[in-house]
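User: Fold this; tokens only.

Assistant: Input:
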Amino acid sequence: MRRTAPTLALCLAVSGLAASVGCTAADTDPPPAPAGLTAQAGSATTVHVMWEAAASRDGVTGYQVFQAGRLVRELPAEKNMTDVTGLTPQTGYAFTVRAKDAAGNLSPQAPAAQVTTPAAKAEDRAAPTAPATATGRATGPHAAWVSWSAATDDTGVTAYDVYQGGVRIHTAGPGESGTALTGLRPDTVYTFTVRARDGADNSSPDGPAVDVTTPPASGEGPGTAPAGFTAVASKGEVTLAWTAPDTGRETSEYELYVNEQPTTVIQFGTGAVPSGRAEHRLTVTEPAGTVWAVKLRARLPDGNWGAFSAERRIVLVA
């Protein structure tokens, strides 16, 4: 719990009443400084700055990012990373971050993170190769470790970017082959990919997708996400397959999402509920070449929907 600094109580005495009302205490206690600050050059003119998200008990509502004492970014509390652009090649920079709470109190500045941008590569239009292999594992309900093999580039790889759901969530240095990812949700399937980037900001294609399932938090029971989810497009149809979550009962109902929208509910009738691997075929009428991102979740014994499966991207076939 955050401790409120001693302060004068502001009380409004109302004439004719026996009691005073409206007593409040001002919040003058700043949040702690952000921890785990890092700065990684992504190219000759950009730097990726990242830090650990504040604990909910700290009451943080936003962050301020500074470069050499100058405010360069203001971010809401749900963001704990940013790219600083327009920098000079082959130049050293120091970044620091402060947290801010709802009362406007600012934390001390985090210890500065030092970084030097690489030299610019003129007329470099060739992207690096994609990392050939990648692996991942959950390290707790809120964290994971993702690793990859080295990529190659004609002028040299300067960074590795980790993506989830098409959004870059982390940047690692050129000499790194793995990184810790934090701030994840318990009992959730994440699909991560890694791209290599060079000094001219050319990005490789995605490396192999890696599914990581975070375990439930303490006291939450077994995981509720369907496992081993696959989606295969063939002429006029899509075949879905998965393994039901272990909820203690037969799972007969699943909600299918296509491109982030609930599309249909798949139901297995009495006596038809699969005991192991489940399969369902969808007839499709959309044009060939249409891209679907599909995932599903199970109806739990308490009537609620469980966690989502991994998401699969497929291209429909005529």
